[in-house]
Amino acid sequence: MYDQLPLHLVPGTIYIMHDWPIDKVKNTINEAGFSFPFIVKPDVGMKGILFRKIENEDQLFKYHEKVPVEYIVQDLVELPVEVSVFYYRHPSSQKGTVSGFIHKELLHVKGDGKMTLKELVEKHPRAKYRMEEMQHRHGHRFDRIIPENEIFYLSYAGNHNRGAHFTNLYKEIDEDLVTVFDKLSHTGQFYYGRYDIKTTSIEDLKKGKNFLVLEFNGCGAEPNHIYDCRMSISKAYSVILKHWKVLFQISRYNHRNGTPYWSFIKGWKYLRQAKRHFKMLEKYD
Fold first, then answer.
1. Separation of alpha carbons 70 and 160, rounded Å
2. Are 116 and 105 in contact, with CB atoms under 8 Å apart?
3. Pairing mode, strands 97-105 and 52-54
């Protein structure tokens, strides 16, 4: 996916094999020009599993020692606004559709100069229900007093599974936004999927400037605007079914034009393998 995107729209990214000696890992990272902090995540992952911010060599060593698969080292992108854009385009058409547009608020607490990190987590409306996870990730600094107005991110993964809050931005979908993603979809074979993006502002994104694509998720991607808390369960199901129909129409067209369907057996084996893969990753998370 990264190879099909314009180079200037992708954070610096390299791939690390999990069985490399740590000296080779450090040399590869240094030669690529990375400096702490940076992001690591499995090359094939989902739901923020094994997604980490690495701040020093000790954390890098512990992550490399633990992770069981090839992983990505990527620049930490600190642009202030994180969004997801779900886009699809029939291969026979020049123009597509932005069907979903959400803002992501990462799971965080705000310091008051008095309470410890643990106390702030216990008072947070969502984080307090994730205490086991918070203890695992931040227990070594639970006693730290967070300075007044300082934002402490409990997770850098803009993922519902990691406590991020989604807000539906469907009212912001307009011709300018569609044009930006029409242009992107023609740079590679992007007919259906979700772009996860960081940008300076919604306005800049619509102008096609000051944004980076963190990931592009293809046919396995969820239209994650269904997780806006104001959407009913029946509406969410109708959104999913609509997207499955679009995916079928795109696949049928591509099949008739030289991209063959997988056999049932190949698809079934792939899904079994994927299920085993993600179950294994969860054990190490």
1. 24
2. no
3. unpaired
Segments of the chain assigned E as strands: 13-16, 38-42, 52-54, 71-75, 81-88, 97-105, 108-110, 151-153, 165-168, 192-199, 211-217
Is residue 253 over pLDDT 90?
Answer: yes
Q: What is the pTM of this model?
A: 0.86
CA 13 – CA 32 distance, rounded (Å): 9
Average pLDDT over residues 13-30: 96
At position 15, the amino acid (one-letter code) is Y
Question: What pLDDT score does 12 carry?
Answer: 94
- How far is Cα 246 from Cα 120, in angstroms, rounded to an integer? 44
Grouping H, G, I as helix, E, B as strand and the rest as coil, residue 36 is coil
Phi/psi for 184 (5° steps) reads -65, -40
Closest CA to 225 of 242, 209, 206, 250: 242
Task: Identify the residue whose tokens are 């633990």.
Answer: 66
How does residue 229 score in pLDDT terms, banded at 50, 70 and 90?
A: low
Q: Which two tokens stand for residue 43?
A: 């090359």
**Arithmetic mean of pLDDT, 114-138:** 91
- High-pLDDT (> 90) share of the chain, %: 74
Written as one letter, the residue type at 127 is A
Condensed to tens digits (0 to 9), the pLDDT of residues 143-169 reads 999 999 999 988 877 676 677 788 899
Nearest in space to 101 (alpha carbons), one of 247, 225, 236: 225
Other residues' Cβ atoms within 10 Å of the Cβ of residue 158: 26
DSSP structural state of residue 215: E
